Task: structure prediction
Amino acid sequence: MPGKKVLLVEGSDDEHVLKHICGERGVGQLDEVKPQGDVLRLLENLPVRLKESDVEALGVVVDADTDLAARWQSLHDRLTKAGYQNVPAHPAPTGTILAPPSDSLLPRVGVWIMPDNQTRGILEDFLRFLVPPGSGLFTHVQSSVAGIPPAEKRFTQLAEPKAIIHTWLAWQEVPGRPLGTAITAKFLDANVAQVDVLVAWLKRLFFPWLTGCPQAEATPNHPTSPPSQPSSIWTPPATRIPSTNATARSSASSTSCASPPDEPNRNKHPSAQTAPAP
Result:
């Protein structure tokens, strides 16, 4: 029986964005898309999750924040200590995927560092790629945020992309949609090239038999052949995605990457505990 497919993310915004991208793009079913509350908790929990013998593939999505090299080093050190070999000195631009040592029960592991594995930034920097190009409204949003008098600016420079994206969403036909449902509502376009790269990484990591990924070598406890259960893909309204695009593992306790729950309108905050997904 195939092992679990688990994706660890920082906060609930990351969770819902990834679930809605998966739904829009026909990525198969995952057993968990689990917000950890913040990056420090994620890094603390990572070694424990790597030791779970029933996990076949484990993905990690974190923000680079202000220092991409430091963020990668923190992951590099934990993966090396856990027993992964030949962990690269730098993250791969298309997302990093590591095969487990052949004599271990470690899972296949993947790392994506927002926004694009190459630059510093956060989730909302990635979402700026999803704004329709050439939008005069978005240009006005950017100039409006930039024009806030310094004495009145309540957010840090790192958080400015959050202010820009949420202002963009506040000025849509239905103002204030949460980040995930804004993708389904087409206020953010999940069919841009930058999303193609993220989706390809997710499929290589969790469904390598669909991509011919050479990194996915079978181990006794983690076979890489497709599960025998029927396909299960959530299709957003007005979007038809053939069920043959992905193979899913059905379970009553599973959390589907491709089946977003109702999304709370809240932002992740480093000090905030993340409530369970509704």
Q: What stands out?
A: Strands lie at 4-9, 32-35, 55-63, 96-98, 108-114. The mean pLDDT is 83. The longest helix spans residues 68-82.
